[in-house]
Design a protein that fits this description.
Strands 2-1-9-10-11 form a five-stranded parallel β-sheet, with helices on both faces. A four-stranded parallel β-sheet has the order 6-5-4-7. It has a two-stranded antiparallel sheet with strand order 3-8. By secondary structure, the chain is α/β, with parallel strands linked by helices. It is globular and about 65 Å long. The chain has 17 helices and 13 strands.
Amino acid sequence: MTQLSGQLAQNGGDGLVFLSEPSYSPSRDRVKAFIAQKYPKARWFMHDTVGSDVHERAATAAVGQSVRPYYNFGKASVIVALDCDFVNGEEEGWRYQKGFAEGRKLRKADDAMNRLYVIESLMTLAGANADHRLRVSSSAVAEKAAQLANAVLNKGQAQDKWIAECAKDLLKPENKGKVLVIAGERQPAAVHILALAINNALGAVGNTVVFHQVPQRNEGSLSDLAQALDQSQIKTLVIVGGNPAYDAPVDLAPKLTTKKGFEVIRLGYSEDETFAVTDWHFPLAHYLESWGDARTSDGTYVPVQPLIQPLFGGITELEFLARIGGAQLTNPHDIVRDTFNATVSPEENAWRTFLHDGFQAKSAPQPVQAQIQNNVVTEALTAAPKPPALSKDNLEVVFYRDAKVDDGRYANNGWLQELPDPITKIAWENVILVSFKTAQS
């Protein structure tokens, strides 16, 4: 890779583009900063197939600084899920489940359970647990969110009885500071901003919703990458993980698979669709073979430790990027140790404790005091489109994260395919679900 690194360094990395998956690794951020110094003209783009970063993007836009929301379901008396299957289909689902279940336990005779309102387009596990469920099309969720926000923020009377009763419950004095409104990953940023605005107006920010400072993101989107490809601005495309030739949007995937005058270098786990269009392919080590680190959703600093050495000569993301950048230190263990030394302590005992405990005690940052900007909320309210009229001639398709194979990345795992879907109980099949009435028409 030394020869390759030398080629990329020409002209400060002009035409050099990185496409990577989301990461909250301090070590990767440090290696990325080193690459930016060596290749000042290089550009970074991020590819997230399921849109799990929408919570961070919406919160950052709403408060005007780079923050990430942290949701405390266990502290909520009233929960409103806007097309959000927090029990099964969200990135932080395991933590949301635990908090939600805590609010359903009755420890004393006079205890009250939390109440769950769900607006959704599919029958989900969250909807199955709801006390009050409203089924609408996915495109209509934004309109319902705007109606709920108007009823709460402006004390307006909602025409929809379901929305009016939900707003009435949220506005009860005994629920002040103990409500939680959360939007799902499938919904646009405007719906997330409205959810944050409702939380803010009801005193939930600082209790059921807290904001943590995160590094400012400077990666471009896939649409930005598509534009760069159209304008022939790319000489070398470095793909770090993922399989964009398989899961990129339909208007971008052909541009990646039909190369026009640029070289593709890829770090990937298998010989898949993207492998077929690469000039250089490096084997990615499994995460159980990799050294690394990360920040959890509340900002706690944790190590990623391998169980075994790489079986088939795979390299980790940290090593790959360090070698691409021509760094002297390329061993992933040493990179993580250097990050720990710089951010926590250079002492050996501190490092051993970090590895033994699996997290750094008291490393989570204090929540930041942030206010929702009124102009952003106003824009979100006015941006809620009126949903189109749906019929047998104008159907709406909803793609959701599968409980077994996620976005399809695990489809080659037959053991996972054996698991039944938690709602439909279907195993192995990939079906289109429609109502009986729609099927008849």
